């Protein structure tokens, strides 16, 4: 009889613990999305946004500062801090590590990160989401005037800056050089940012560089007013590049865009994106997206490249990367996407 009573007590205890465990699991599950959202909040309950931009002489950096100012003024309960970085690749790596929760990137680098290819092989970033497709990021090949370089293959054995480590510019340089059956071993490569390029060019320490940015880019303005000029990529190699990398497309920099530029320059371009983690609160992403497009005239007055930003193109060229639901909600409201 006593043995039977013990068995009953043990059975009741096991059942109680099981129910307690189920209840705890249910609570954890129901609170998980709330905890994800809180991960982005500061102690005072504000959404804290650490925004990775680019190098100080590119377009990303001033664009990021302009957007941060607008968002801090126009969107309640957010605190946006823009930060200089080496741009696309580094921004996505820092987002994956949780050090940033917003960043600029080109679509080509974003494609690799989302799908776990090239620089992101074996570590796909499936939790990234797009807020907007922005303006074209144009590959601008500059050469020192005294170098006598007129085509890409003439960079063999010459001093060349492909871009900073962790930048989309470096990735694009590799893609362009490969179309000429070249790689970084064929040039005297120096991996630095746009600011250093202008100094190196002035001091005749390099013969050329690739600047990937919206036009007009301040680095190219500085180079072309002093020691450099733009050169084109010929149509045959543009076709080869765009076939291999379908997110790239032919782009013409109109004559007179820069000082001393007497003719059109042909090159390749790709779209720029703003991205965030998928767990950023939907309502806040909606408000950030809305504030950006409602203040587009302010952005355009500060950033020349933003003249090519258009709401109707905000969901173009995403290369299969999902929009954040908050951004998607706004674009459906404005008729950019079908409801």
UniProtKB/TrEMBL annotation:
Biased composition range(s): Basic and acidic residues: 35-47
PROSITE patterns from the UniProt entry: PROKAR_LIPOPROTEIN (PS51257)
Ranges for region Disordered: 26-47
Stored Gene3D superfamilies: Periplasmic binding protein-like II (3.40.190.10)
Name the record gives this protein: C4-dicarboxylate ABC transporter substrate-binding protein
Organism expressing this protein natively: Neobacillus mesonae
Organismal lineage: Bacteria, Bacillati, Bacillota, Bacilli, Bacillales
């Amino acid at each position: 009889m006593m043995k039977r009573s013990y068995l009953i007590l043990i059975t009741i205890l096991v059942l109680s613990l099981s129910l307690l465990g189920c209840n705890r699991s249910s609570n954890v599950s129901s609170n998980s999305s709330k905890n994800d959202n809180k991960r982005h909040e500061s102690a005072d309950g504000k959404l804290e946004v650490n925004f990775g931009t680019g190098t100080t002489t590119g377009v990303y950096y001033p664009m990021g500062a302009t957007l941060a100012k607008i968002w801090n003024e126009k969107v309640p309960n957010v605190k946006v801090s823009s930060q200089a970085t080496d741009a696309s690749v580094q921004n996505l790596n820092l987002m994956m590590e949780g050090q940033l929760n917003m960043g600029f990137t080109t679509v080509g680098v974003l494609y690799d990160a989302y799908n776990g290819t090239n620089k992101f092989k074996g570590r796909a970033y499936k939790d990234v989401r797009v807020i907007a497709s922005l303006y074209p990021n144009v590959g601008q090949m500059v050469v020192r005037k005294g170098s006598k370089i007129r085509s890409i293959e003439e960079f063999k054995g010459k001093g060349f800056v492909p871009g900073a480590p962790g930048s989309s510019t470096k990735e694009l340089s590799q893609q362009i050089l490969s179309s000429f059956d070249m790689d970084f071993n064929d040039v005297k490569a120096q991996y630095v940012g746009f600011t250093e390029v202008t100094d190196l060019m002035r001091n005749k320490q390099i013969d050329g560089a690739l600047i990937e940015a919206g036009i007009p880019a301040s680095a190219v303005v500085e180079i072309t007013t002093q020691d450099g000029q733009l050169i084109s990529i010929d149509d045959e190699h543009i076709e080869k590049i765009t076939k291999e990398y379908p997110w790239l497309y032919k782009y013409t920099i109109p004559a007179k865009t820069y000082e001393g530029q007497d003719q059109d320059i042909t090159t390749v371009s790709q779209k720029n994106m703003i991205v965030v983690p998928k767990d950023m609160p939907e309502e806040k992403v909606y408000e950030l997206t809305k504030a950006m497009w409602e203040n587009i005239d302010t952005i355009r007055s500060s950033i020349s490249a933003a003249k090519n930003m258009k709401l109707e193109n905000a969901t173009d060229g995403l290369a299969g990367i999902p929009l954040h639901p908050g951004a998607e909600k706004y674009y459906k409201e404005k008729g950019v996407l079908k409801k």
